[in-house]
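Input/output pair, single chain:
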Amino acid sequence: MKRKALFSFLTIILIVAAGCSNKNGQETRTSKENKGQTSIPYEIVEAKSLKVSRIFGIGYPGNDQGLYIASNSGIKINRAGKWLESNANRHQYMGFQAVESGFLASGKPEKGTEYKGPLGIVKSNDKGKSLEKLAFYEKANFHFIAAGFYGTSLYVINEKPVEPLSLGVNYSLDNGKSWRESTLNGFKADSFGMMAVHPKNGNVLAMATRSGIYYSSDSGDSMKLVTEPLMVTAVTFLGDSLLYSSVENEKIMLKTLNPVTGKQTTLNFPFLDYDNPITYLAVNPKNQKQVAFATYKNDLYETTDGGNKWVSLLLNGKNERD
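Output:
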């Protein structure tokens, strides 16, 4: 697939992209007041009142208990219904990905910190207190990042020229030290969208597009359409199967799919209006009955029993208890 054609696809999936658009060593940073005079020791504290105007990703980091959301004002954490947040380093984390040792992200640093933007790809193993610079620090932001929960595989959709990446899908199997272009043979969609990587096999990739889900077992070099040609707004792995949300006949659906056998199931979940599709899905790889989803209007739901009962954690970005 030619680079010129790849570039034309980067009108990235309309609904998901709308939410994103409208050191090698580690070092600890702390937020500072406007003139940089007073440091604030980094802590995870109880959120007395919670209002999120944008969600940039959700997930279950393996080094902590609870559901993380990456917001326009830093990390928020829900532990058993109680909301926590960082009191400093409130960066705008785009492309947020939970992994076994913490989380990965791109994005923009909070003003007043010593971090510079764009963040490139960074990693935190201590709940956001410090960031390890993996690649492209001060060079690029990535709205779409995918990573295996276990291991060192990374995927990005590159929208602008930045060496050594090609435009389109690129991957690294060594935590960002070296990169290759995914050749995407068989990929016929007219858009890129959310990517997901198998939690244990970094060569297995799925991508949601407005033409269905494309699946690859060779790091995106060959892609196969594994659903009907329908709009898919979010996808993640549920073990070896896929958990995804689609829009069908003006109705939002939540389904699982085994991409090898084709077996599919439809899941029950809280009703959502057609103009409020699911934008992010998360499964806890250490407890696959723990699943969450976020929507375009910043609603957040979670189940801890595999979908029999769902709990509303945020409504329009607000804690319903506030």
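The domain at 3-21+45-314 is CATH 2.130.10.10 (Methylamine Dehydrogenase; Chain H). The chain has one domain: 3-21+45-314.
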